[in-house]
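Design a sequence for this backbone.
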């Protein structure tokens, strides 16, 4: 019985430690002809804009959408206006998002398809930064 309880405690602790403070999702909005990448960010954490100087320190968020048949992309990934503030850790002005942010990619769809998109990002809070991470998202599209 002790072994079972010990195993459950260790598993629960590991699950808490391993959780990422951000959850990414992607949806295709047929009416608006766009893919929306949404990031739900845990309180106290932030993710960086695509448009920051990487030499400042933090890794900018980036999107790579695999090319394929049945669609073409229009322009680049668009983001809302970020929070801009001086970060003492990086000794630089940086642009970032908190709580929830949506990035949008316009798309022309000719045929149903499945798109794979890679999002690379870095998360920080007031005490620490996590290493840059890549998340792969799958999006079903249709004309």
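Sequence:
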């Amino acid at each position: 019985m002790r072994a079972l309880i010990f195993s459950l405690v260790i598993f629960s602790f590991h699950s808490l430690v391993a959780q990422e403070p951000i959850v990414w999702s992607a949806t295709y909005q047929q009416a608006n002809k766009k893919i929306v990448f949404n990031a739900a960010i845990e309180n106290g954490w932030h993710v960086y804009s695509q448009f920051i100087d990487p030499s400042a320190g933090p890794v900018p968020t980036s999107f790579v959408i695999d090319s394929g048949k049945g669609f073409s992309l229009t322009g680049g990934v668009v983001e809302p206006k970020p929070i801009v503030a001086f970060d003492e850790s990086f000794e630089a002005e940086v642009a970032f998002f908190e709580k929830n942010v949506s990035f949008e990619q316009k798309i022309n769809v000719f045929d149903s398809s499945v798109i794979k998109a890679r999002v690379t990002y870095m998360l920080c809070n007031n005490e620490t930064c996590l290493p840059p991470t890549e998340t792969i998202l799958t999006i079903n599209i249709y004309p």
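Residues 84 and 95 are 4 Å apart (CA to CA).
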